[in-house]
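Quick log. Single chain, no ligands specified.
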Amino acid sequence: MSPLTYIAPHDLSDVAQQGDQLWVAHDHGVTLLDSDGEVLRSIATPLRRPQLHAFSDGRTALLQSYGPCFWIRNGQLEPIEVLAKGARLSVAETNTLFACTDKSLLVDDGASRTFSVDLSRPHAVVTTPDGILLLARYGWALLSEDGAIRNQGKLKLARVFRTKETYVAVEGTTLRPFAALRSLGAPLPVEFNDAIPFAGGALCIADDAIRLVDVDEEGLRLRWRIDVESAAKRCWAGDFAVIELPEFRQCLFVSPQSDVTRVTLDSRLRQVCFREGEVALGTERSLHRWRPGADTLEPLEYDAAPSLRVLPSGFASLEGEVLRVFDARDRPPLEPTFAVADPELGAPVVVGGFLGTRITTGRYAYMLEHNGRRFRIRRGTPFRPALDQETASALMTRLCARECDASIPTPPDLGPDRSAIARGWPPEVMATLQQRAWFDGDLSDAERILALQMREGLLSELALALRTSPRCVLAAIRAGAYPLTPARAIPKYEYLGSFQTKGNVCIADPCYAARPRFRLELKVAPGEWFVFVRPWVDPTWGNRNGELIVVHERGYAIAATTAVDGFIGVDSGTAGVFDVACEVPDATEAMGVTIDGRGVFVSSGLGDGGYAPYVGRESGAIVKIRLPFIDPLRDDRSVAVEAQPDETSEPYSPRKTFAVATVIVHKKFGSGRVIAATKERIEVAFSDETRTLVHGR
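-> predicted structure:
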């Protein structure tokens, strides 16, 4: 069975069904389709990624979570009353539209009326037989049908829902009975990370168990409990409860009678939708359907990372410009053709400025992956092979010698979509643009912005071909030396160059380097200091800087474990160590560069925040500075510390679980100390180097 498929001219944001017709929304407007997916009408809109809601009485609303909202009537858009200037919250329940600002609430169930309210940043509207409950950042209010405030409070409630006996309010990790929405009771004795309504009770999800409890004004009663061997991270509820166990890549389907079906997932769950006894699951990589009684998932057609919707006729998926509707009709499969063949699986290519390798094959799109990050690419999009090692080495040599001289189209010739056009430039042109931006200093503002937009793509492509990282490529270009080789390497750290200081340095965000109040100043050993970064790679965040280390030639064997009194605040997403005489650097470089031989700065891990440095001393002088951004441990991973076994030491086994600071004895590597631990892996500092081992298997 093939789904109904519609290919839009733009990426889609939502779909809604009105009778046997479909409204689809995108950034440029809304389109009405018939039951066969043929276009009946299109309307232009000024909204960005709008949402749709079709009411059973024939009305259709075009909504935004923040911004103007419209009715779609007779092929025209009509602004919704006072919300034409923007709403903080827009939701639709059954046949009623609720939309509110900080000062007003619109209720439209066919007859529109507006009430005055005074609740900052509302986040939920709950319709109840006792009135309209509005939840906000700094409190809640219960309104009568005519808008009068019947009750209000200052507690920040995450959600309120009805059980068989009473209402229940969730406040952080506290559950309270909420009698007639008038009196909040005392916290109930149940531990949970999240609580949602299910089967007339409250489903409480904790690290070790899932409990369904019945709540009344006198307390709670346990209906059933299911123990789980892994922390349940998220839960959805409809006719069944769906509970994700991400450590095992599994999910549980739990019936109201506590019957459990366990299935295996290919990746983390992103969405769950319920419809008439069946469940649709959207993971990070695929789309599936589950029906009661089945112990496996039924695959649904997809190309790359779709999002799910529920329609009266079935499930729908939105994926870029593609809409699929999985209903009961049987249609012949479509076999589209494309003028440009797909890249080979596993071969590195550049598509629209994005570097990666094709890892999937779909009907209308495929997935490109690089460093754990994935991009959906429309089939038929032109591409070119990524640079090979020989070509990349030659280009690096010219960049280091400042000899790139390709002709660059001027920004006025590119028009308003200059970045999209520039992504199709060959590497030689991109390298010339970056060379001018780094070293010539005579670029226009438009050229400089364009260079910043294109920089990551060029550096990543060079790094892939040269089997290194973008930050190392940038450091070598800045230093004018490729390859950039340290006098002494540190295992699992990347070398970025060196700088000189007369003995006075500061640690700061570059934008605060000239402001003594916002920097930490230290007296250090004078001379040459060498710069290293410990990479931190994550599927979501990509390749980030986990830690910055600057070390004097006398400090390689010294552990920087002494905390400095104070910390630095970062607001530009970058931080570094500078000689006090160093000029204030340009904070737009994010991958790590030396600055005129007098300092260094790098991107600060995951961005802005407060970071505490550590130092190491030799003969009283500071000879190493360590600034951790991610996993801010006191332990210095750049130094191999020999751990001495004692009566508390434990023999290593992958079946055991080890805590940080535990000394273990390995049959091959000897004794070592655990310096970092996750649920599945540990980092152990042995006498020669730090190694990653598994545990808790």
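The chain has six helices and 59 strands.
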